[in-house]
Structure of Alkanesulfonate monooxygenase:
Amino acid sequence: MTTEPVFDAAIPETAAPEVEFISLSHLNPSTELNPVPSRGIDLKYFRRYVRSLEEGGYDYTLLPYGSNSADSFVVASAVGQLTERLRPIVALRPNTTFPTVGAQKLATLDQLTEGRAVVHLISGGSDAEQARQGDYLPKEKRYARTSEYIDVLRRSWTEAAPFSHDGEFYKFDDFGPGFAPYAAPVPISIGGQSDEAFQVGGEKADIFSFWGEPLDDLRSEIERVNGIARAAGRTTLPRIWVTFRPIIAQTDQLAWEKAHEYVAKVAATFAAAGSAARRFVGNAPQNVGSQRALAFANRSELYDRALWTKTAAVTNAAGASTALVGSPETVAAAILDYVDRGASLVSIRGYDTLADAVDYGRYVLPLVRQEIAHRKATGRRGTLQAEHLGNYAPEYGQYATAGQP
């Protein structure tokens, strides 16, 4: 059991006044619980998935990118045409698309979606994965390239006359005026836990992305980003995006029964010979985010109200993998703990991907939004966090360890 914090109805000074929700889009029914060998798109499933996100009240969906994945730009364009409100986030690696071309593609998507496009720049956390598409820059250079890429993107969207560029990584003459976004430059997100990631994100990103970490550790990281932003003379700080893999059920006890079942299946998937995830297991991860996740997992399985790290441990922290476990009320209260630390974008994606996305939309998002509306109306916090204690109550830890060796 974690020591229960003293509840104060005053809204913390660090709290974000708004919160928006992100979910990753899935192209077919294959999951970590039940992997189905496929590299393809199940169009019927994809349409249903995206429609469920729109109906569930999500604000954004991330279209991931990998060397063996579907093209994120094409999928984002499809999302834009299948929805009216959902904002597609294009995951883009600078080594795959020249920046003036990237600016053109993003502006085109923004026009087609009437201002809904967002881009998440991935500098690259694995040398091996980067090399699969011919990128051999060392990691610190990759972030320097991302910094230059951001500059070219923004100039391409805003310069009223042709301009030339002669930088460390890119050179061109008399480009533009570029194809314009719908109304304003496309928001740019980056993530990462290296020193280089913090520097670029603090100085230039509209959004900085984290994986789920213990509350105090994340707040320290947010302060670090904000300090870099202020030192760069920024008056608007980056929005903070944090990602979790919630496991919910009607009660905390039932959620823990599901969590233990899920983690056993996920571990089996990642341990299976021939699994697409096999290359991640058994090797020390190169990226700092995965290293941090594994360090937290080694220290403890449970943190704060509902953060569970065993899902990271069994996957070698191959991507965002820390869970929030509990009833919808407990998980919503845990999300609000992170909102209170400064997160205004919360990404939640499940292990039973479509069913979980639907359940979050029905049972979790409304609770968080109800609390945010209460705060706006009263200037005070509601009682959700005080009433649903999760790991701050002794029985929660008993559920978490029930039946475990």
In short: The domain at 20-244+326-379 is CATH 3.20.20.30 (TIM Barrel). Residues 353-378 form the longest helix (26 residues). The CA atoms of residues 39 and 69 lie 7 Å apart.
